[in-house]
Design brief:
Blueprint: E1 2-6, H1 10-21, E2 25-29, H2 37-40, E3 51-54, E4 59-63, E5 66-69, E6 73-76, E7 79-82, E8 86-88, E9 101-103, H3 104-112, E10 120-126, H4 130-139, E11 143-149, H5 160-165, H6 167-173, E12 183-185, E13 187-193, E14 196-202, E15 208-215, E16 218-223, E17 225-227, E18 237-238, E19 241-242, E20 255-257, H7 267-281, H8 288-307, E21 323-325, E22 330-331, H9 341-348, H10 361-368, H11 385-389
Parallel strand pairs: 1-2, 1-7, 2-3, 7-20, 9-16, 10-11, 10-16, 11-12
Antiparallel strand pairs: 4-5, 5-6, 8-17, 13-14, 14-15, 18-19, 21-22
Helix pairs in contact: 1-7, 3-4, 7-8
The structure holds flavin-adenine dinucleotide (FAD).
Flavin-adenine dinucleotide binds near residues 9, 39, 132 and 259.
């Protein structure tokens, strides 16, 4: 039984180990030089005699039971597990594309390497991820001007079931106690010009009700995460996350998905889903402990999605000349009236640049009211034409 796992984060590593323990021949592919994914960032020591780990290797297409890799190389599989994770979502405001504004994920990745880019920093966005980022920056000596959470914590009062099932998450809050005094809720950065940063108090729909100016060198922006679901453009999804059954099967035959591609719930849920997917792909019944961890973790993930859902009032933050698509320099006023994403792209060039809409497509869809059609690309990562030309003839149709 040949199992291929794409992604070596908490989900992919757990899936690969579990499948190899069950006797499958496993290959784990990841674009990074070391295993660990976003959370562990190279600090994980992955080793298993039954797993071949292909490092620095990007997968770009699933075609039947073949996975295409940059190179170009191909891997045949009996079962494929996709564990490609997520990336963080910025929202545009005047100045967000200038110096001194980065995503919260980028700030965290740099902090894990001991780098902070500025003295006075702000972390703004929504969701619990803001707290570890703020803590990491403060631990590196940055002055935390503010941690601005756009949502209201009162939304969590409706989520008693999820909280009861995941009490350990409350304990995790204690680790962030040093930054809690800087936390302001229903608040967001809505403009930055030089070191002058406009901070607004928001209503429940995130429309500004008042604002003030503070001074900071760096603003770290994170409005939740978007899944990297481009490898399976035809799989059934909800809100762009893959739909999976209780064995982590997607709607595509012999293809499983685990971790943040199925919903955002943290590294422990990703790992539990990896165990379930690895066992199921190898033909075993998933361990009851992992199944239960997935059940509880999903309650938390669903509560998180509700409590920190991006609200439409953000669409009042950009000015007409605010950049929406950084790659193609498309401003809000350049977005055309369109009925669908394809027409919007062709008429304004939004989402047509190097990032292929990963950063801007959802924002552009919300700003114009066109339905967001998800991350559906035939080729999942940018590849040179030479690599396509080098494919065997039978793959070129
Ligand atoms: C930038 C960032 C920083 C984060 N930092 C933290 C943190 O500090 N603390 C925390 O609790 N949570 C953090 N998170 C949330 C964290 O990602 C998850 O909780 C957890 O890592 C999810 O695990 P995963 O296995 O689903 O995906 P990931 O850990 O994201 O792993 C996915 C892996 O797939 C690889 N990959 C993706 N596409 C391809 C492809 N086409 N070909 C080959 N390889 C591919 C990626 O390189 C990555 O190594 C962070 C998220 C992001 C986006």
């Amino acid at each position: 039984m040949r199992i291929v796992v794409v992604g070596a984060g908490p989900a992919g590593m757990a899936a690969a180990r579990t499948a190899a323990d069950a006797g499958a021949e496993v290959t784990m592919v990841d674009s990074e030089p070391e295993a660990g994914g976003q959370y562990l960032r190279g600090s994980a020591r992955f080793g298993h005699s039954g797993v071949t780990h292909l490092k620095n290797t990007e997968a770009w297409l699933v075609e039947g039971n073949t996975l295409h890799l940059r190179g170009p190389e191909q891997l045949r599989f009996d079962a494929l597990i996709i564990a490609t994770g997520a990336y963080d979502r910025p929202l545009p405001f005047p100045g967000w594309d200038g110096p001194g504004v980065i995503t919260a994920g980028a700030a965290q990745a740099l902090a894990k390497q001991g780098v902070t880019l500025a003295e006075r920093v702000i972390v703004t966005g929504t969701g619990p991820f803001l707290l570890p980022v703020a803590t990491a920056l403060q631990d590196l000596g940055a002055t935390l001007v503010g941690v601005y959470e756009a949502s209201s914590p009162a939304r969590w009062l409706r989520e008693a079931k999820a909280i009861t099932a995941n009490r350990h998450k409350i304990g995790e809050l204690a680790g962030y106690r040093k930054v809690l005094p800087r936390l302001e809720t229903r608040t967001a950065v809505i403009a930055k010009h030089g070191d002058r940063v406009t901070v607004a108090k928001l209503d429940s729909r995130w429309r500004p009700v008042s604002h003030r100016t503070v001074h900071a060198d760096l603003v770290c922006v994170g409005y939740g995460f978007l899944p990297r679901t481009d490898l399976l453009p035809d799989a059934r999804r909800t809100n762009d996350f893959y739909d999976v059954d209780e064995r982590q099967r997607t709607s595509v035959e012999n293809v499983y998905a685990a971790g943040e591609v199925t919903g955002i719930g943290g590294a422990d849920l990703a790992e539990a889903e990896g165990v379930v997917a690895g066992a199921a792909a190898a033909g075993l019944n998933p361990p009851a402990k992992a199944v239960e961890a997935v059940r509880k973790g999903r309650l938390f993930a669903q509560a998180l999605a509700r409590a920190h859902a991006v609200q439409p009032g953000w669409q009042t933050w950009p000015a007409p000349d605010t950049t929406v698509c950084r790659c193609e320099k498309v401003r809000l006023e350049d977005l055309t009236d369109a009925t669908g994403m394809r027409e919007l792209k062709l008429s304004s060039r939004v989402a047509m640049g190097r990032c292929q809409g990963r950063i801007c497509a959802r924002n552009a869809a919300e700003l114009t009211g066109v339905p967001f059609d998800g991350q559906r690309r035939v080729i999942a990562v940018p590849i040179p034409l030479g690599e396509l030309a080098a494919l065997p003839e039978e793959n070129k149709s």
